[in-house]
Design the sequence.
């Protein structure tokens, strides 16, 4: 519904974010442009079907930009297969690199138009650090996953069957960039989380 | 302990004389209430939303033991460890125990009033464990070695020059007093802590019993990092944070940020369901510990009048609108919770003896009740507490001042009972008080009435009742 799209973008912008809508073939070029705003910096990617479809990894590599792919679970079996220590060191190295990245791109599960909120789900239960550590975050959202209010989503998310609340997963609602007014009530963006929050709605 | 509620009367008097405190907290409170009002006006149905929020909280409080039991089963099934802390001291020992057993000496903290309430940071420090606050305001206040002065903005009492001075001294680098510059410096230091800490300690805004989901609300991103980056996550939450169901969460979120800061939604709402780093991550799962804090809450729950205070969702609007809080600021209250809600919680948690003065520091204007998102009748609770304080005093040893006061109140009650007594007393008072009147007001009365006039004026007694005046006036109209 076009009203939901407009309302989603308007609410996101009211919360201090920057938003844009595009058909899926425009996604690659838009993401490449956004990545280019932090030249020389690594682009971190989350697990995302939209990202895979956009061919962004190749596009970025073609521009000579470094890409940090999603933290992938060990191919064969759990920690015992590689040793807990090895897995842990790999994780620490990943987080260090991620902390130095210029931009993180992840795909949202849902959008909430009333408040300009995206629902991020991390099925590895890592807390979606790609959306949190780099100073710029891009959230991708399919237009048919926008609902009006959080009340509309909660029954789905809270039900026994829905995987978002299974133990070991993590879910976070994000509304705009990180902010504080702790010093003399002056608004400052990007305290710990991203300073710039982009929303790209794919129609 | 380090709470100074017993010194409230003198602390409040001193603060009331400081124009800077009044300026800062009036500006902060006014701004936050304006934002709150704007957010309430722009969203439809907020009156119903407050009723719904109250209902949801009431449902939780009415059967709290059951929900706690459901929650404990759920958390245990998920692989989290549940601990029950009866007292503040218990909570400190439990958390220190978890850290000691894991050999962890460096800890990061998300903002948590419960950890302030139990004095966790000081206790951990005495155990050689370094706990660094990561919320910007809390971090600044920690560097300064002082206490938060507002639930939402812990460092509101500091100017940017104050913040710069503290940060320059503690971080050893030159900084400007531009809030952006100061924030950036803090971000860099704290980033290092986020990436190296062995454990993260947070509070919880709500904990849903049916799904075992811990809800963390914030704007900065530090609670997300504290909860997800270190391997160990410890949650300290009062038992009153437990709500029956995940489906209750939207109802509470609808009013929480709108009341606290005027935002439709907080920037980040994290849902932690069981230990993170699940099986698909290939990593060993995190250690998740949930410490449920009583510290007097069951006693409050059992009280038919005061249990209402457990509905509080810690938004801070009652502070923002309170004329007393705006005048004296947060530090004067000398407790983890301030303003109207603090004036009720302090005597209930710390005991009537230590916090007797707080319930009296109110004109009972009712503004707090007007803005409370769960409609707690704070003025009623304050009056009830006053009554309990006086009752307790009267049961003590021989108290001549108390006896005189009680006698005066009884006499006043007798005088006000009929209009003829009121009229005769007013005529007498007008005649007798003539020498004390200056510019139509009585500014000073002899002891013991001087206790009243030390900070209040009496108007000149009118000499007759309102009805007598009205009758006369009507005839001439």
Sequence:
């Amino acid at each position: 519904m076009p009203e939901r799209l407009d309302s989603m973008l308007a609410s996101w912008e009211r919360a201090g974010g920057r938003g844009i809508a595009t058909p899926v073939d425009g996604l690659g070029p838009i993401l490449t442009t956004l990545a280019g705003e932090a030249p020389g910096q690594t682009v971190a990617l989350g697990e995302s079907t939209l990202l895979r479809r956009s061919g962004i990894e190749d596009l970025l590599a073609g521009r000579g930009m470094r890409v940090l792919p999603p933290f992938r679970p060990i191919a064969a079996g759990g920690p015992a297969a590689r040793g807990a220590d090895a897995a842990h060191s790999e994780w620490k190295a990943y987080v260090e690199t991620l902390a130095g990245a210029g931009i993180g791109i992840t795909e949202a599960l849902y959008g909430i138009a009333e408040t300009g909120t995206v629902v991020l789900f991390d099925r590895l239960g890592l807390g979606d650090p790609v959306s949190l550590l780099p100073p710029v975050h891009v959230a991708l959202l399919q237009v048919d996953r926008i609902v009006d209010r959080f009340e509309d989503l909660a029954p789905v998310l809270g039900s026994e069957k829905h995987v978002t609340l299974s133990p070991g997963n993590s879910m976070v609602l994000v509304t705009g960039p990180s902010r504080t007014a702790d010093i003399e009530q002056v608004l400052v963006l990007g305290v710990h989380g991203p300073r710039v929050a982009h929303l790209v709605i794919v129609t | 302990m380090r709470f100074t509620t017993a010194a409230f009367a003198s602390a409040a008097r001193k603060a009331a004389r400081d124009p800077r405190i009044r300026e800062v907290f009036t500006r902060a409170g006014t701004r936050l209430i304006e934002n709150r009002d704007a957010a309430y006006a722009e969203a439809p149905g907020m009156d119903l939303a407050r009723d719904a929020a109250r209902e949801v909280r009431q449902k939780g409080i009415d059967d709290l033991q059951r929900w706690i039991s459901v929650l404990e089963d759920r958390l245990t099934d998920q692989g989290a460890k549940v601990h029950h802390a009866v007292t503040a001291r218990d909570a400190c020992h439990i958390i220190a125990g978890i850290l000691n057993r894991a050999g962890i000496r460096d800890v990061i903290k998300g903002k948590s009033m419960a950890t302030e309430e139990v004095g966790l940071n000081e206790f951990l420090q005495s155990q050689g464990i370094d706990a660094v606050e990561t919320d910007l305001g809390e971090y600044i206040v920690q560097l300064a070695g002082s206490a938060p002065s507002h639930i939402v903005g812990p460092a509101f009492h500091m100017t940017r020059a104050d913040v710069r001075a503290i940060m320059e001294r503690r971080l050893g680098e030159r900084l400007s007093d531009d809030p952006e510059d100061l924030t950036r410096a803090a971000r860099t230091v704290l980033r290092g802590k986020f990436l190296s800490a062995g454990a993260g300690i947070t509070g919880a805004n709500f904990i849903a019993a049916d799904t075992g989901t811990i809800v963390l609300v914030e704007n900065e991103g530090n609670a997300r990092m504290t909860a997800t980056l270190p391997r160990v996550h410890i949650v300290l939450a009062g038992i009153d944070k437990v709500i029956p169901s995940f489906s209750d969460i939207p109802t509470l979120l609808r009013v929480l940020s709108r009341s606290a800061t005027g935002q439709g939604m907080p920037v980040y709402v994290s849902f932690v369901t069981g230990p993170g780093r699940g099986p698909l991550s290939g990593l060993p799962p995190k250690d998740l510990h949930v410490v449920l804090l009583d510290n007097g809450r069951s006693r409050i729950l059992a009280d038919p009048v005061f249990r209402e205070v457990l509905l509080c969702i810690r938004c801070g609007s009652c502070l923002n609108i309170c004329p007393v809080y705006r005048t004296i600021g947060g530090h004067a209250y000398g407790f983890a919770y301030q303003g109207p809600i603090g004036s009720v919680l302090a005597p209930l948690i710390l005991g009537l003896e230590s916090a007797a003065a707080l319930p009296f520091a109110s004109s009972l204007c009712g503004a707090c009740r007007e803005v409370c998102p769960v409609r707690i009748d704070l003025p009623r609770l304050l009056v009830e507490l006053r009554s309990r304080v006086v009752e307790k005093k009267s049961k003590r040893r021989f108290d001549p001042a108390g006896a005189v006061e009680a006698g005066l109140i009884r006499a006043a009650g007798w005088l006000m009972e009929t209009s003829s007594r009121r009229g005769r007393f007013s005529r007498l008072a007008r005649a007798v008080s003539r020498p004390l009147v200056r510019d139509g007001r009585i500014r000073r009365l002899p002891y013991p009435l001087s206790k009243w006039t030390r900070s209040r004026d009496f108007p000149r007694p009118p000499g007759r009742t309102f009805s007598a005046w009205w009758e006369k006036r009507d005839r001439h109209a």
